[in-house]
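ARCHIVE ENTRY
Sequence with per-residue tokens
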Amino acid sequence: MAETQPIEAQFTRAYDEYADAIFRYCYYRVFDREKAKDFMQEAYCRTWKYISQGKKVDNIRAFIYRTANNLIIDEARKKKHISLNQIMEKGFSPSVDNRVATENYFAGKELLKVIDRLDEKYRDVILLKYIDDLSTKEISLVLNETENNIYVRLSRAAAQVKKIVNHQAS
């Protein structure tokens, strides 16, 4: 029993620290609040089941993201995704701070339009890196890719964003 307390403490701390970010990640992937909540909760349930069986997790944050990502991929195989633009129609602001100024709201709306135009593999790394603030190593664990592949994707994503923004400006 004493052995489970450190596991419980680790799990509780992971929930407290990452639940909101995991929810946001899920939401940006499925654009449905209830489904995002379900994916987040299921990711934590599966993580708890895994670690309570005595299995070792080196990076619990990356493990939870990967679990959530796998759940979303499984769902995507069953169903079509909703457009990123629809999140704004549902009133969800991309900002964590509810006191965001009006100009930031519109800048976020424009940013979502740019992100929506990215290929999915680039959109995923951009969301994980800049929305959820994951390290390149954590992203590589989440997406089951090498760190080098993630660096390349981030670089290509940045190039695509620049190209889109420059095209919109002209």
Notes: Residues 112 and 152 are 22 Å apart (CA to CA). The mean pLDDT is 81.
